[in-house]
Amino acid sequence: MSSLSSSSSSPVIATLLVSCRDRTGLVAALSDFVFRNYGNILDADQHADAETGLFFMRLCWDLRGFRLERSEISTALGDLAGRFELGWEITFSDERARVAIIASRTPHCLYDLLLTHQLGELGGDLGLVISNHADLAPVAGHFGVRFVHVPVDPADKLAAEAAHQRLLDEEKIDLVVLARYMQILSPAFVARWPGRIINIHHSFLPAFVGSKPYHQAKERGVKIIGATAHYVTSELDQGPIIDQDVCRVSHRDDVEDLVRKGRELERQVLTRAVRSHLARRVLISGNRTIVFG
Within this chain, do residues 153 and 283 fall inside the same structural domain, yes or no? Predict the structure, then answer.
């Protein structure tokens, strides 16, 4: 759709993410680019990191009346990038990202994502749920989302990943969400999705590893439990963190209480992380993120 043809009731918003070495004139140059082309800035947020000397910015503007077409916007931004050595990415609000969820048996994170999508609050289009067990098929079916069962043979996990990739290509997926998927992805699969796979786990790592972290936490007498959502990298559970949350617990909480509270945190944190990504509020810088509010 042309940038000049958006309706007054649903304006198309351009969102520009920028990262580069900090220097004078950056904010002025980017703001002036929008101003000179008759754009109306709706939101601008920037951060200069004193330790690394890097600059990050998120700039949103209304395309109504903007005199450049989308291809021309990219060309003009390319010129700016050459001047200031910018890393940049631009997206448009009427080009919605397509999302796939990969899960195992545990349903709480899947339910939260499906409900958020049904309410129109996810910020993307949920096209597919994949699971290595058939248990969650009724859950996806209830929300009218395609479900595919892809069993994982421990002796040939790459075959399952190949099936995943075919499905993701078929559905033209942009973002993969691991909603308590209890399988480790191969480095080759992860490499095909840099900054486009989000995972969730409890925040006891690396202290309490294994299948019963909440039992270990209870025995250790922890006073805080939490959840972490992060991008997936080849280093297990070590990718850039997008969102985290914690809650206090006490000696009165038994293991079931800890698990319940952990589930609540996991579904909330994962959904927030996915929404932040789809709203183009996240910039990856090395092994950390800049998350604009």
Answer: yes
Q: What is the pLDDT of residue 237?
A: 87
> What values do phi and psi take at 196, rounded to 5?
-135, 20
pLDDT of the residue at 209: 78
Catalytic residues: 237
User: What is the pTM for the complete model shown?
Assistant: 0.93
pLDDT at 203: 84
Cα–Cα distance measured from residue 150 to residue 80, given in angstroms and rounded to the nearest whole number: 46
Contact call for residues 53 and 21 (beta carbons, < 8 A): yes
180 to 25, 252, 270: CA distances (angstroms): 44, 27, 10
Supply the pLDDT for residue 236: 86
Q: pLDDT under 70 in the chain at which residues? A: 1-9, 205-206
Tell me whether residue 225 is in a domain. Answer: yes
CATH (domain of 277): 3.40.50.170
